[in-house]
């Protein structure tokens, strides 16, 4: 990221609910199922945004992501993203909020995984 002049990377992973994920860059970094969005700041720990499903009134978390993380931790597997940095999201607004929270609002951010 330093070589490219980036303050952060956003990695998008396509969810597997419509068949095998064709874009699964997120799994390289999370070591879990496809479908998360990860924000990697140059400094500090990455944040993994876990998708929520349902209608806007009764959004339900995709428990599979959190249960996978808990089970990996329980087994003693290497967990690359700390539990405190797992967040639920249902819209791009949460990505924007996380970018601002990490003080990256005016930074240069690279994006991986948005190919057509």
Structure, briefly:
This protein has 116 residues and is an alpha/beta fold.
Please provide a written account of the structure.
The protein has helices at residues 25-30, 63-75, 92-101, and strands at residues 8-12, 37-41, 47-53, 60-61, 86-89, 109-112. The chain is α/β, with parallel strands linked by helices and 116 residues long. It has one domain. A hairpin with a 6-residue loop joins strand 3 and strand 4.
Task: Note the main attributes of this structure.
116 residues; alpha/beta; 6-stranded mixed β-sheet; 3 helices
What is the secondary structure topology, with strand pairs?
Layout: E1 8-12, H1 25-30, E2 37-41, E3 47-53, E4 60-61, H2 63-75, E5 86-89, H3 92-101, E6 109-112
Parallel strand pairs: 1-6, 3-5
Antiparallel strand pairs: 1-2, 2-3, 3-4
Tell me about the biggest sheet? 6 strands, mixed
Estimate the helix proportion, in percent: 25-40%
Distance between the termini: 23 Å
Q: Structural class from helices and strands?
A: alpha/beta
